């Protein structure tokens, strides 16, 4: 489906084509916006962009990487990111975990969007174990030492048991974004945006 705030209607899959989905030809500026979805291989893509940037002498803006992932942003937060991207030099790349932003709604030039998709179930399982990983948590707690440490039981939780027991963490509730668990279940937000209709 395709959704925009100016035209809040969803297109049926049968109406889509490669030509219609080609963002590059619709871009107003030659800036790549890699609004990297979580757990879709975006870490490898980040490294590729950085290596290619060094090799081909283009700028990679990673300021968005230092922020916590927010499932939904208000208009002012979206506009701030859109303005930052629009102000980059042509040939640059901006990388951040952020949902799709409708640049038209801010009267700003559209960049070239790049992202990836992963099997949704495999992605959720990957996220479940990723947030429990020692490497990720060492970095996280180094950045945010004041944050509460989860219990040992939480770190040892098994995904299958979590689903079967009806644990709140492993339940999908439509129209609900719970920051308590850094809810990253909806890949669609990376392509739809911050509007309630995208939930």
UniProtKB/TrEMBL annotation:
It comes from the Eukaryota. It holds the Pfam family Sulfotransfer_2. It is found in: Golgi apparatus membrane. InterPro entries: Heparan_SO4_2-O-STrfase, P-loop_NTPase, Sulfotransferase. Its main location: Golgi. Keywords: Glycoprotein, Golgi apparatus, Membrane, Signal-anchor, Transferase, Transmembrane, Transmembrane helix. GO terms for molecular function: sulfotransferase activity. GO terms for cellular component: Golgi membrane. It is a single-pass type II membrane protein. Belongs to the sulfotransferase 3 family. This is Sulfotransferase domain-containing protein. The gene is 106093265.
């Amino acid at each position: 489906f395709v959704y925009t705030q100016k035209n809040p209607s969803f297109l049926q899959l049968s109406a889509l084509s490669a030509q219609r989905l080609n963002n590059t030809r619709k871009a107003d500026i030659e800036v790549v916006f890699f609004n990297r979805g979580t757990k879709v291989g975006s870490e490898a893509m980040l490294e590729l962009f950085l290596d290619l940037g060094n090799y081909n002498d283009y700028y990679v803006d990673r300021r968005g990487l230092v922020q916590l992932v927010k499932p939904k942003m208000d208009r002012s937060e979206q506009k701030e990111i859109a303005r930052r991207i629009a102000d980059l030099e042509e040939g640059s790349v901006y990388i951040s975990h952020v949902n799709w932003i409708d640049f038209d709604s801010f009267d700003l030039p559209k960049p070239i969007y790049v992202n990836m998709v992963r099997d949704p179930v495999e992605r959720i399982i990957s996220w479940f174990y990723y947030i429990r990983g020692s490497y990720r948590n060492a970095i996280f707690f180094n950045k945010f030492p004041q944050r509460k440490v989860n219990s040992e039981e939480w770190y040892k939780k098994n995904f299958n048991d979590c689903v079967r027991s009806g644990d709140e963490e492993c339940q999908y509730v439509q129209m609900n974004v719970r920051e308590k668990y850094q809810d990253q279940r909806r890949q669609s937000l990376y392509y739809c945006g911050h509007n309630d209709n995208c939930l």
